[in-house]
User: Fold these one by one.
Assistant:
Number 1:
Amino acid sequence: MNESRRDYKTVWTGLSGSMEDAYLFVSGYTDEEKFHSASEDTLGILLETVGLREADVVLEIGCGVGRVGTVISPFVKEWIGCDVSPNMLRHARHRLIGLDNVRFQEISGYDLKPIADASVDVVYTTVVFMHLEEWDRYAYVLEALRVLRPGGRFYCDNMNLASDEGWAVFEEGLKLIRAKRPPQISKFSTVPEFETYLQRAGFTDIHVATRPMWVYGWGTKPRAVRA
Ligand SMILES: C[S@@+](CC[C@H](N)C(=O)[O-])C[C@H]1O[C@@H](n2cnc3c(N)ncnc32)[C@H](O)[C@@H]1O
């Protein structure tokens, strides 16, 4: 393992000094129109899975430059963008200027400590788990459960190792790591991994689905949490 991978703050702050670099490391391109259309896709998936309601406080783990926050905030009461990188948050603040129901929170990279227990209705994380070690993924699933109100909903996604499309990217990675192993290189997930996290954490109403490239999972915080 590349030992610097786990130092998420150093890695991601270093990748996001300029707005252009931040766009590139968030999405692989800098084209604002393409960026917007990808946000609409993510919005559609969130609406189909966890749903979004007018009264919801919604929190994103690893919000980057606020790609998704821009399109979600009109549907909800409040959107909280959390990220390990202060640079990403600076760009996000700049991009979302004028939206009055958004706020930003720098986090350690391992937890959601600044967020109070049972204070949020929806937690989601998209295009982030591929950059995290498995324990750190699961730690965020547990943190999501903590900050959600009873009945609150959680969504996560990653590239799917078990699909042809995911496997093709995995094989590309194989070439890349022979030359250089960038600390942020994507690592994949599978349906059983997501089912295990959601079940072990104590979510109910668990669903895990796939799209060609993606595996995505969602669940609900029980109304009476087990001790
Ligand atoms: C590929 S970008 C995705 C950004 C955003 N979710 C989107 O879809 O546009 C990954 C983001 O995760 C953030 N990140 C990386 N490791 C993190 C960690 N351990 N905790 C929180 N955020 C992290 C990075 O700073 C970056 O903003």
Number 2:
Amino acid sequence: MKALKWIWMIAGVAVIAAGCSKSTIYTDRGELLPSFCREWNPDFQYNGGRCAFNLSGVQRKKVKGCNLSRKQFSYCGDMTPAQVSYSNQVNSSRLDALTLISNSDRSQEQAYLSVNDGFLAEGRRVIPTAFNHVVLRFPSRCTNFGTDAMAGMIEWLGHEIGKAYSGKKFSGIKLVVGDVAAPRGGCLWGHGQRVCHKSHKTGQDADIGYLTPRPGKSSPVEFHQIFDPKPNYWLIKKLFHNPYACVKFVFLDRRNIKKLSREAGSDPEWQTIKHYIQHAAGHHNHFHVRIGSGPGKPGCFSPDLQIAHNSR
Ligand SMILES: [Zn+2]
């Protein structure tokens, strides 16, 4: 049985690693090849047959910043055969996502161009299991794809929640994950389809619900406005310590940032991480977490550099 699991794991790695080599991604001058963008970027046509709109001089018809032809509830149709296969294998417990991500020697990038105008290649799906306590806000929407760093961070966070809130008393604890990115990234309309996300295009942004442990009961499985600073400060610290992805920013409503600040009290670590938690309107019921390309310190850069501001 164990041998069979390893065979599936190796097969999974092979499927996921079967991407393009570097030479088929960039020109000799280091620019992205249009053929690569055509293959992966769902907004390629919208961008005028270019990798990104901002690489062209063409005027973009602004439709609240997003591609109208991508205005849909579900993005499941964007999935590659490899992503379908991976989903099936994790769902049938033939692959352990955290082990796979930890052992992955993927050298290829997955997030291309900017978080506001880019796309995701070979994205990895965040899949709820008994071990990660993840519950997807919209399971049928297929907007739970990220880079390996993102998927590893969420998976690890779920495992840590399970360790900290163990036992029958907390068996119903959940980590609510909203939109991350579509299977190939690109333009992503909100679930109400009134406005699109400004970012969430490269698999490096995730909406995460507030941690709400309820002894003897199940946690809510939706975003909500009840913000208990104690478990959520714990969650924030875990996020910044995760070994898979450096956290660039956490966007949150200022009222809840104040609550975190009071909870942190004299914790010396707050003096560092508070710089990377920023107010953003509309974040009164969830965190928006933006990561960099790999593990690292809060902010994803050395402390002597300025904090880079970016849109949600
Ligand atoms: Zn968001």
